[in-house]
Each structure stands twice: as structure tokens, then as C-alpha cells.
Amino acid sequence: MTNGNGNGNGSQAEQIWFILNELAVSQTRTEQRLNQVLIGLEALRQTAEANTTQITELRTTAEANTLQITELRSTAEAQRESIEAHERRLERLAA
Fold first, then answer.
1. Are 41 and 27 in contact, with CB atoms under 8 Å apart?
2. Does pTM top 0.85 for this prediction?
């Protein structure tokens, strides 16, 4: 085993230190990657929360639009009936 400088005559303590140092560097990189993943997950969570809020708002708007459409259909039907009644009166007057 080498001591990190290319020769194999390092002491066992140096070799252990080298291995521990490499493990520490690897752990640091892993922690950095994990932190990046956690940051990404938090961003996704916030996006999901915002999307959920937007979906709720859209559902509320859709319900309001459905009610408005129902009201407009009723109004249109009442106006159609009124027009038909006026047409019948005009026909009677013309006869």
C-alpha cells in the first residue's frame, strides 16, 4: 500500500491517516450532494404546495363558473319564453 505520494514505504499510521482522510473527503462530498438533493426536494415540495393552492383556486373558479352558466341558461330560457309570448301576442294582433 502506498502513503499517497507514490511510494510504498509509509508507516502503517500514515497509511491509516491517508485512508481516513480519503474517507473524510468522500463523506464531505456525499454530504454536499445530499444537501443539494435536500434543497431540490424542498423546492419540489414548495412547488407542489403552490400547485395544490392553484388547483384549489381553479376548482373554486370552475364551481363559480358552473353556477353562472346555470344562471345564464335560466335567464336565456326565461327570455326565450318571453319572446315567444310576445310573438304570440303580435300574431293575435295581426290576425
1. no
2. no
